[in-house]
Amino acid sequence: MAGAGGGNDIQWCFSQVKGAVDDDVAEADIISTVEFNHSGELLATGDKGGRVVIFQQEQENKIQSHSRGEYNVYSTFQSHEPEFDYLKSLEIEEKINKIRWLPQKNAAQFLLSTNGNMGWTFSDSLPKNSIWEG
């Protein structure tokens, strides 16, 4: 990333693959949006199949502030289903277009996701019966 700051530029690199590299990828599995939470500890991805997958940074990488940071699957849920708008005679796809994390007010983490047509879906990112220690 180029910038006027000189030597403090952030260097991004691809360092992690989930799943086998040679697997055929279904259209619904293609990631359509990515959003880190405010601390960078959680990463939410949305795909063309309407699913949201939340990844959590591994504990040992939290200690090292400039490490590459491995992320593991933390939670997965179906955010949007395909629908039909009868008034407009239009199919509404389930593809997630945007994800936004809400500002954290307590230990809970919340996010919003949208497919661009049916508004935002509100989600608690924690799996049921879990305790957030962050």
TrEMBL record:
PROSITE patterns: PR55_1. Keywords: Repeat, WD repeat. It comes from the Eukaryota. InterPro entries: PP2A_PR55, PP2A_PR55_CS, WD40/YVTN_repeat-like_dom_sf, WD40_repeat_dom_sf. GO terms for cellular component: protein phosphatase type 2A complex. Coiled coil: none annotated. GO terms for molecular function: protein phosphatase regulator activity. The keyword rRNA-binding does not apply. PANTHER family: PROTEIN PHOSPHATASE PP2A REGULATORY SUBUNIT B. This is Protein phosphatase 2 regulatory subunit Balpha. It comes from Cebus imitator (Panamanian white-faced capuchin).
